From TrEMBL:
PROSITE patterns: PROKAR_LIPOPROTEIN. Keywords: Membrane, Signal. Pfam families: BamE. Residues 37-111 form the Outer membrane protein assembly factor BamE domain. It comes from the Bacteria. Gene3D superfamilies: 3.30.1450.10. This is Outer membrane protein assembly factor BamE.
Length: 170
């Protein structure tokens, strides 16, 4: 009889370990959803009207922009992005909204534009190396290439007219 209770206890422990491994395995593959940037409120965005609002009223309604255009302060951008990822994979954008508020020189709203994921450029790099111009040198050439080179800078081999360049060190 004691053998039976020891095996049933071991069986229960094995079942508990198996269930916890199963739960950990399924939770590791869950989709993670994140939000980055501005929280878009459609009602507030629709309330910004060209010709009526100015910088102060837009900041009061929508808040500070995500960023301001670099060439003059004519455009304000509000960027919102929803991302999705599986466990440890790279996150992928699912939805994106870029709200651009353009101002005239007087500071009044000239236009409000919305853009989405259709404006995102997908770039796929070719290869794992960036082609460059110049010499192709190995690691050993880079390390030992200047040993014994005549006139190497900083090694006392400067020109004859400079300090330390003459035959007497003058």
């Amino acid at each position: 009889m004691p053998q039976f209770s020891r095996h049933s206890r071991r069986g229960r422990v094995m079942i508990a370990i198996g269930l916890s491994a199963l739960l950990l395995g399924t939770s590791a593959c869950t989709r993670l959803r994140t939000h980055q940037g501005y929280q878009v409120d459609k009602l507030l965005v629709d309330s910004v009207q060209p010709g009526i609002d100015n910088r102060a009223s837009v900041e009061g309604t929508l808040g500070r922009p995500s960023f301001v255009s670099q060439f003059g302060e004519q455009d304000w951008y509000y960027v919102s992005r929803n991302m999705r990822a599986l466990a440890f994979s790279n996150p992928k954008p699912v939805e994106q909204t870029v709200l651009r508020v353009r101002f005239d020189p007087a500071g009044n709203v000239a236009a409000v534009d919305r853009m989405g994921l259709e404006q995102v450029a997908h770039i796929s790099p070719s290869g794992d190396k960036t082609p460059t111009l110049g010499r192709h040198r190995s690691l050993f050439d880079e390390i030992f290439g200047n040993i014994g080179a005549v006139g190497a800078a900083g090694m006392g081999g400067g020109s004859a007219g400079g300090p330390g360049g003459g035959p007497n060190g003058s």
